[in-house]
Design brief:
With 388 residues, the protein is α+β, with helices and mostly antiparallel strands. It contains 9 helices and 19 strands. α6 packs across α7 and α8 packs antiparallel against α9. The radius of gyration is 24 Å and the shape is elongated.
Length: 388
C-alpha cells in the first residue's frame, strides 16, 4: 500500500477519508489496494480508515486482533455490536465525506461491494458516503513500467500465435478438416510454449457461433470448420510472471477466397467504428482534456447506429485491462453503465465494437495504453478480413 499516494489522491478529490470494510472477504478490492494477504480467515468485521491527512485507524475484533497489523496506523478493538458502532462513530467524528466501495444506484457494479446496511450505518452518523470508483481505478488499474512491458511482451507473442492460428486452420481444412475445440487446444499448446497463462482458453467460433459474444465452446458441441466458413478468434492471455498484465484481441477471417458482400460490409462497419474509438481516445488524451469511458462508447455506438446496426451491438465498447483481463479502471461504456470514470495515464483497456447477426458476428478488438499526453494501440490492427 502506498499511503502517501492514497492520501494525496484523497486531497486532490476533496474527500476527507477512505473507509475500507470487510467480512468474509466480501471486498477483494480492499485486499489488493491495501496489500493484505488474501488467505487469512476473516470471521468478524474489520474497518480501516485512511484520512486525507494524518494517521490511519484500524478497527478489529478482539478475537481477530492481528488482521490489520501489516498496515500503518493506530489500532482500536471491539467485541459487541454496540461497541463496534460506538468505535465507528469515534473514528469518523472529524470527517464528513467518506469514500467507500459504493456506486450510486449500483451503476458501477464491479465497485459497489459494501452492503446497504453498512452504508446506512455510516450515513446514520451524518456522513456523506461517496464513491471510491476513481480511487480504485487509480490504485488498481494504473500500471507500472514493468507491467506495461509485460503487456507488450504478451502482445508480441499473442499476435504471432493468432496469425499462425489462421494459417493452421487453412492447412487443416485443406488436409482433412478441424473443429473449433481442436483449434482451441492448439492455442492452449501454443500458450504453454510462450509461457502464457489465461483465466479461460481462447475462443474459436464459426458462423452462427461467432454471433454469440460469449459463446461457450465445449468438446461435445464443437462445430467443424470448413471451406466457406466465417471464423472469429478471441484471444487473451498474459505472461506467467508476477504482476503481469493481459493482452486481449479479437480477429475474424473467412475460409476460402471470396467472403460474401454481407460479411465484408459488416466487417467494414465494425472496423470503422473501432477506428473511431481509437481516434476518440488519442484526440482526447492528446488535447489534455479529461476523457471518460462513456464518451468513447458514445462515439463508437453512434457510427454503428448510423449504419443501421445498433440493435446488433449488444455490449460495451471496451473494458479495463490489468492483471485480470477485466480490471477495475474505466470501461468504454455508455450502454451497460454510463461510465463517468476518467481514462487515467498508464491505464490499459480494449476497444472492441461488434455486430452480431444470426448467421455470423464480427468483433474487432485492439488494446490501448494511455500515457500522460498520448495514447496508442499496443499491437497489430486488423484492416481486412483474413483470407484463410
Amino acid at each position: 500500500m502506498d499511503l502517501s499516494a492514497i492520501q494525496a489522491a484523497l486531497r486532490e478529490r476533496n474527500i476527507d477519508a477512505w473507509l475500507f470494510y470487510d467480512h468474509h472477504h466480501r471486498d477483494p478490492i480492499a485486499y489488493r489496494v491495501l496489500g493484505l494477504p488474501a488467505g487469512q480467515m476473516v470471521t468478524r468485521r474489520w474497518f480501516y480508515l485512511i484520512p486525507a491527512s494524518g494517521e490511519p485507524v484500524k478497527l478489529v475484533h478482539k478475537i481477530e486482533p492481528g488482521h490489520l497489523d501489516s498496515l500503518p496506523g493506530s489500532k482500536r478493538q471491539y467485541s459487541g455490536w454496540q461497541e463496534l458502532f460506538d468505535q465507528v462513530k469515534v473514528i469518523l467524528a472529524n470527517y464528513r465525506d467518506i469514500a467507500m466501495q459504493y456506486s450510486p444506484n449500483n451503476l458501477v457494479f464491479t465497485i459497489s461491494l459494501v452492503d446497504a446496511g453498512t452504508v446506512d450505518l455510516i450515513r446514520g452518523l451524518g456522513k456523506d458516503v461517496v464513491s471510491s470508483c476513481d480511487l480504485v481505478a487509480q490504485f488498481e488499474a494504473t500500471l507500472t513500467e514493468e507491467q506495461i512491458k509485460s503487456h507488450f511482451a504478451a502482445g508480441d507473442a499473442i499476435d504471432a500465435i493468432t496469425a499462425a492460428a489462421f494459417q493452421e486452420i487453412g492447412r487443416r481444412v485443406r488436409n482433412g478438416g478441424t473443429h473449433e475445440y481442436q483449434m482451441q487446444q492448439w492455442f492452449t499448446e501454443a500458450f504453454k510454449r510462450e509461457n502464457l497463462v489465461t483465466d479461460d482458453p481462447p475462443l474459436v467460433a464459426v458462423n452462427a457461433n461467432s454471433g454469440d459474444p460469449h459463446y461457450a465452446l465445449h468438446p461435445e458441441t464443437s462445430k467443424p470448420i470448413r471451406e466457406g466458413d466465417f471464423v472469429l478468434l478471441d484471444v487473451w492471455a498474459k505472461k506467467n510472471t508476477p504482476g503481469a498484465v493481459y493482452y486481449d484481441i479479437t480477429w475474424t477471417g473467412f475460409v476460402g477466397h471470396s467472403p460474401s458482400g454481407r460479411m465484408q460490409e459488416i466487417f467494414n462497419v465494425v472496423r470503422e467504428a473501432r477506428d473511431i474509438g481509437v481516434k476518440t481516445v488519442i484526440d482526447g488524451v492528446g488535447s489534455g482534456k479529461a476523457t471518460a469511458g462513456w464518451q468513447v462508447d458514445h462515439a463508437v455506438r453512434a457510427h454503428i447506429k448510423d449504419a443501421g446496426y445498433e440493435r446488433y451491438f449488444i455490449h460495451r465498447t471496451g473494458h479495463s485491462i490489468g492483471t485480470e483481463v477485466h480490471a477495475n479502471g474505466a470501461n468504454m461504456d455508455d450502454l451497460e453503465i454510463h461510465d463517468e470514470r476518467r481514462i487515467l495515464p498508464n491505464s490499459c483497456f480494449s476497444i472492441e465494437p461488434g455486430i452480431y447477426l444470426p448467421e455470423f458476428g464480427v468483433r474487432s478488438e485492439v488494446n490501448m495504453l494511455v500515457r500522460p499526453n498520448a495514447a496508442q494501440v499496443t499491437g497489430r490492427i486488423q484492416s481486412e478480413l483474413v483470407i484463410i
